[in-house]
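Final report, results section. Input specification for complex C-07:
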Amino acid sequence: MKHTISVLLQNKPGVLSRVTGLFSGRGFNIESLSVAEVLEPGVSCLTLVTSGDDGIVEQITKQLHKLIDVIKVTDITETDNVEREMVLIRVKAEATTRAEVLRIADIFRARVVDVSPRSYALEITGTRAKIKAVCELLKPIGIQEMVRTGIIAMTRASKKL
Amino acid sequence: MKMTGTQAFMQCLEEENVQTIFGFPGGAVIDLYDTIFQQDKIHHVLVRHEQAAVHAADAYARVSGQVGVALVTSGPGATNAVTGIATAYLDSIPIVVFSGQVPTALIGNDAFQEVDIVGITRPCTKHNYLVKDIKDLVPTIREAFHVARTGRPGPVLIDLPKDVMAAIIDFPAKTPVKMRTYRPTYAPHPGQIEKACKAILAGKRPVLYIGGGVILGNAHEQLTEFAYKLGIPVTMTLMGLGGFPGTDSLSLGMLGMHGTYFANMAVAKSDVLIAVGARFDDRVTGRVDAFAPDATIIHIDIDPTSISKNVEVDIPIVAGCKEAMEQMNKWLDASSFDLETEKAKLGPWHDQIKEWKTKYPLGYVEETDVIKPQFVIQKLHELTQGEAIITTEVGQHQMWAAQFYHFNHPRTLITSGGLGTMGYGLPAAIGAQMAAPGRTVIDVAGDGSLQMNIQELATAMQERLPVKIALLNNNYLGMVRQWQELFYDKRYSATPMEIQPDFVKVAEAYGAVGLRATKPSEVEPVIKEALATNTLVLMDFVISREEGVFPMVPAGKATTDMLLV
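Structure output:
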């Protein structure tokens, strides 16, 4: 099963290598990874998506926590969370398909960020499911290039007062 | 006070109460060595290979309980140290290794003797640092010692660029190390302690399975008290030997691949297994699903990642072994259970264990014309009254030492358990002897392993260390040969050592004493002479060539599937 793990870490030289080295050294799998400095200076948030059974995911969170530079590890899969990924897609847009591409973009609230006589580049933000859906619709038209940020996620705040 | 980085370095070592460091000089650390030369508070031991410096520092730590320190130069000096660092990492030994580095301006330039040692050692250190600014030097060293010795101990490496060490700083006043992201848990959860004690009292066939954590955590007294309170039999991993008296009637000896028949049977049939500071290594468990299949498993460990890693645990306790055992003893004392009655309930279990012990005791076939290695270990035990510090290399001799020396005290078996590093024993004997100058230190060696760091005879001689080497010489890489005999139809691929030096002459060439025994009757006189000699003595015991280590659980088999001959 896929798990989204959020890791708060001290932004020191080599810290990303400690995390990725842990995954490669112990044979854990990384499906996506995204990292950037957040609110507090010197602290980064790393969101990674991995898969494995409960035992493996338990080991992953424990091993991450064991790294000296890691402040906090949360497996946010089971919690109520907001999850987003941004994708840039360059899709073929010939005379016959230009309108269709724009229609699809409109339906998924994608933005056109680059235009050329034979293609559009779209920016789409959403959950894994939404991105998958867009890709499937655009594939028959012709996807020329795609770049993804990897998933970032945040747990929802409590709705109770 | 204003001083250079190298002077600040020395001051930090003094602050940490370091008395001995092991090292080897080079271009990147020449300034440091210049400062070492001009002081007399810290003794520097010059090794003959950087691997040995780290092994010696590691053994120093194992014997003394203090953090061991090694110093190496950049590039090849640092890469030579890696095996030593990995050895300490796998056995959770607190050491700090300082490596020289090229000046910061040259880092990344493929400069002479430059290597990214922080990158190389990332997966085999508990933590490591590159000091790029002189103002970080002192706080980094303080933090490194703190990280190395606390929690689950381990090696820490600090990479020191040459220009940083030559810069000038005002030595900062000592403040307690505070780390936001690193706070190991020592105190056990009281609810888990109660659960564990109740599960143990409900059991009819309990076994204590103890590992290196008991020794590293100084928990042997509390553990022994606990075992005695309820009369629970104790089995030890290789790293746990000495954590409970090996000659005690409750001792089952070592378990696992070369463990005793009765230890493996007791664990397999147990209904409560109490793992203390052990990590369910594959050499201990054999086939995991057949390991203690009927037992409620309690696991005490300071490292949460050890818990439920290989075997699913029923009652986890994340805590220091000492703190946890203390609380369990207290809980039992305060409880309404009558401990004598509880102890008596284990009668049938003890009868069963006695039956196993009688059926297949630890032993070997004695012979009159050829020296049996087990006999040598027994004689060493007898003639040192079991009070020596034994270091070992890795292989058959290591297992015979583990089986037949019956360690009664913690910190007396100094061996590379996790990594299984050949060439560990001689440098370890040097480190051990430096930490315990008055004690008898014996390196139980094999002829293959000894040659991996035999150059350290010079180090021992230079330091005038009366280390003893008991070489069990069979002219084979014996452990691999044993596997080839048993599982590869005796195809002895690359295990016969066709050319060997005359080890007696080798010892003599270094100015040490060499003695040889070829008959069983010569064993005792040779050991006696060696023990009475106040210098390094190499005892070359020519042993029965194809002796095997038994019992043996073939790799991947259940621990009850033992080869017993």
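Chain B has 23 helices and 20 strands. Chain B has three domains: 2-170, 190-358, 373-542. This concludes the modelling results for the funded period.
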